Amino acid sequence: MLFGTTGFDATTTLEIAKEADVTEPLVYYHFKGKDKLFTHSLELAFKGYFSRLRELPEHTATEFQKIVNLIILHFKIEDDLPEQMPMIVTTSPAKLHDPKGICLKNIKRARQFVVNYIRGCLHAGIKNGEFRKVPASATANMLVVLLNGLVRQRVYQLSESKGMKDASPFSLS
Amino acid sequence: MLFGTTGFDATTTLEIAKEADVTEPLVYYHFKGKDKLFTHSLELAFKGYFSRLRELPEHTATEFQKIVNLIILHFKIEDDLPEQMPMIVTTSPAKLHDPKGICLKNIKRARQFVVNYIRGCLHAGIKNGEFRKVPASATANMLVVLLNGLVRQRVYQLSESKGMKDASPFSLS
Amino acid sequence: MLFGTTGFDATTTLEIAKEADVTEPLVYYHFKGKDKLFTHSLELAFKGYFSRLRELPEHTATEFQKIVNLIILHFKIEDDLPEQMPMIVTTSPAKLHDPKGICLKNIKRARQFVVNYIRGCLHAGIKNGEFRKVPASATANMLVVLLNGLVRQRVYQLSESKGMKDASPFSLS
Amino acid sequence: MLFGTTGFDATTTLEIAKEADVTEPLVYYHFKGKDKLFTHSLELAFKGYFSRLRELPEHTATEFQKIVNLIILHFKIEDDLPEQMPMIVTTSPAKLHDPKGICLKNIKRARQFVVNYIRGCLHAGIKNGEFRKVPASATANMLVVLLNGLVRQRVYQLSESKGMKDASPFSLS
DNA sequence: CATGAATGAGCGTTCATTCAT
DNA sequence: AATGAATGAACGCTCATTCAT
Fold first, then answer.
1. pTM here?
2. Which residues of A touch B (CB under 8 A)?
3. Tell me, in Å, how far CA of B61 is from C1' of F5?
4. Of A55, D33, D42, D66, whose CB is crowded by the most CB atoms within 10 A?
5. Using CA atoms, how far apart are residues B8 and B34, in angstroms rounded to an integer?
6. What's the rounded Cα separation, in Å, for the pair A76 and A79?
7. Buried (b) or exposed (e) across C80-109, using 16+ Cβ within 10 A?
């Protein structure tokens, strides 16, 4: 998807059509216009993302492992769908400020899912003594922020992320 | 700056001129074109950002306080310069992928500054026993990612960041 | 063609489109841009010119008649294609100085054709005793210059050319 | 003069000012505008041209020599004033079709001068038996056309003009 | 389904010209 | 006499979109 790599505005409908090996009017036959096509692509990307999220194993040895799984999964998704992940992380400002906010809506929904997921792990971990007593919501929120940052950094190759995993200053236990 | 809120491509030179209450050709008289104007604005934003970073107190009671100061400063900058911060965090994909990369260059430079700053704190804190022995580089890197994520979240108002400070799962000590 | 009468730079794409009774973007759909359109028009004009040149009768009573035919043909072409001849003779300075020179290339090619044609006549005429022994190349060159001048003068209506034919100071015999 | 090499339309007032090492408004202070400046330059060029024409020796050994002198003078002028001659020969179509015709006016005036000059030579030459009896006006006209063509050819370097002089098929005697 | 042709709207940019100083 | 700053008008060109076939 050119939208992810080039951005919505800098991608022309002609380029889109050429990439898909069809003619421009055909794009307009299937989708209603550029905006609709973008919405469609975005929702498709998020749909794929959500479906991957749902694959996460419900039960693992530890709650900590669940969180690790979540992070690893994001890296995997990025490797598997190198074209769609940018769309999810990029969030072109013009689209983000769009009042109708199909973009913002999905981002918030995805965010909420991950927050809930992590909070669940934290609650369970605290309950069973795996974690010490941390404020679950705020901690989950922060971990999401960290996760987003990690994915973005990887997408834009801003720096190597090697060694980060085992070097983390986090200690939930 | 419209570039930050609307994005480079979706911002027309006419809008820019109107916002500045001048005519379009005048923009081309002072700057050479839209690209040059963008570069100028971006460098101005980063210049302001860097100048604020340099204000950070060299010596504080604890090394932890220095890190906290860094984060608080970013929030302050965002409050003080609500127009420039988006430019720093937005990173339009088209511009980010530009190999010549005035945009990417600044982002990496800023990133490096903050990484170095935090790593310095960590090293010092570990030396004087304030922190336990964490891998400084990797930890600094991760904290930067977290910081970036926090700022982005705030700029785009993706969620409230209340309570995050004292609820942090971090424990460097 | 406006290019011929108005010149390349003074002809706007809008005028061109209006003259052709189409919209401006359509011009850009069929041709790539103003320059390409000019090139196309120029080559079309020269193509027509060359095709007319090829119509010249191979054999005539005298070699002198062949030369006269050549000159008369040029006047005919000018009458038949009043829009294209200016393009061939006008040679806008900007275009002429272009090193890549689609314009210059055609002009030189046309020139060469005519020079060769005349030189052929001269050689043959000298051989069969119709002409006295003149230096064929230099004479042909000069006659081309004269021909060009005549056509130009006619295109720009700089003066009447009546009576020139039978009043010529030339004497090849 | 950029007008001659680049053409009126393709020459900007800024370029003109820079070439003259002054600022743009100063050009407007001294001349009224681009058109007026062009007119001025053109008239200057023609003035210089006419002044050179007046230098032609009134009396020479033969009338033929006078005509030869005229041609040689044109080549000299071109060598001496490489910037102004193009203005005289180029005759941008847009300017030529201008009804007010400062351009056309000068060209016709120059043309008339040369025609008269040559016709005078012819008349005198015929009278004193130097030339055989050719129709003076028509012959003069044709020689002007040839002269124009020669100069143009030289300005645009369309071909070498070597050997043309002594190879001429002309014979006035 | 599919497309070549067409277009209204607008964009980035330039330029001849003016004005305040 | 001289200029930095400013602008109305227009230009070449692109693009999302439509329509006839």
1. 0.86
2. 4-10, 86, 90-94, 96-97, 107-108, 111, 134-135, 137-139, 141-143, 145-146, 148-150, 152-153, 156, 158-159, 161, 163-164, 167-172
3. 53
4. D42
5. 9
6. 5
7. ebeebbbbbbbbbbbbbeeeeebbbebbee
